[in-house]
Structures are given as structure tokens and as C-alpha cells.
Write a structure and sequence with these properties.
Length: about 160
């Protein structure tokens, strides 16, 4: 397994978010955002996601490879954690996202408060769907999911039981 650590999102992580804001990374999530949208996202991440957490994915040599996190939402009338991640192109295909998602699942388990974690990658995003499978999520099937806000995308609903080990 790839060795990564997750570090709580901090003030100094704005440049990482700018580097993640490229077509190759955001192709399945509505495309690149404006500078204002990136900065607003950074402010949300830095302020902490209420009852959740965003992290920078950090390699053993200290290089930042991406972002990962979890946050609360209500899905089908049940409180759950939603999870999401993004990895810079030069680190994709190396197990970085899977290792970071597993570490983030452990953090969500430790926090408690929700039984289920869900992820909603586009049905057209085989790498992110593979991350879900490798990280132990169960595929519930395709759904119409609103992301970015105001746009529906066809996603797979993946679920992981946080009460199980």
C-alpha cells in the first residue's frame, strides 16, 4: 500500500487547491473553478467543515499530492458522511487516493456521529470508482447527484459502514 499521511487543511494549503483546479483533476466535478470560487473553497476548508474535516494528502517526502475529506449530509433521510478527494495528475494511478481515503475513513470512524460514509463519483470516472472499491465501499448503484450545485450528474452511490472494522 502507498504510504501517505493526511494533514488537516491549513492556511498554507491555498496553493495546493489552486494546483488541483485544473481540467485533468476537475473533469468529473464540473470543470475548473474561478479564482474566487477556489479562494471561497479554501476559506471553507480552513474554517473546518462543520462536523467533518478536509485534509491535504502528504507523501513521505513532504510533497502534497492532493486533498481528501468528509463532511455531513443527509442522504435519503439519513445523516451520513460524504467523502471526496482529488489527486494531482503526477500522483494518480499510484494508490495515493486509496491510501488517503482509507486514512480518512479511519478519522471519520474516530469522530463518530454517523454510521455510513458515502462517495458519489461520476459513473464516467473509473479511477475514482476503483478507489471506492479498493477502500472497502459497497456499490449501491447509479444515482442522479447534484454537483456542482445546480447541475445533476450521473454518479455511483458507494457506501461504507463506519461501525464495522
Amino acid at each position: 500500500m502507498t504510504d501517505v499521511r493526511i494533514a488537516p487543511w491549513g492556511e498554507d494549503d491555498l496553493e495546493l487547491l489552486r494546483r488541483l483546479n485544473q481540467p485533468a483533476v476537475r473533469a468529473h466535478t464540473g470543470g475548473p473553478e474561478t479564482d474566487e470560487q477556489v479562494f471561497a473553497r479554501h476559506v471553507r476548508y480552513t474554517g473546518g467543515v462543520a462536523d467533518g474535516q478536509m485534509y491535504a494528502i502528504v507523501l513521505p517526502d513532504g510533497v502534497q499530492a492532493g486533498s481528501v475529506g468528509y463532511w455531513p449530509r443527509v442522504w435519503r433521510d439519513e445523516p451520513v458522511y460524504e467523502m471526496g478527494w482529488a489527486v494531482l495528475p503526477e500522483f494518480q494511478g499510484r494508490g495515493v487516493a486509496t491510501a488517503a481515503v482509507r486514512a480518512t475513513v479511519d478519522a471519520a470512524r474516530a469522530r463518530g456521529g454517523r454510521r455510513w460514509a458515502h462517495a458519489y463519483p461520476s459513473v464516467d470516472n473509473p479511477p475514482s470508482n476503483a478507489v471506492c472499491r479498493k477502500a472497502g465501499f459497497e456499490l449501491l448503484g447509479p444515482v442522479d447527484f447534484e454537483y456542482p450545485p445546480g447541475q445533476l450528474m450521473r454518479s455511483n452511490d458507494w457506501r461504507l459502514d463506519l461501525s464495522a472494522r
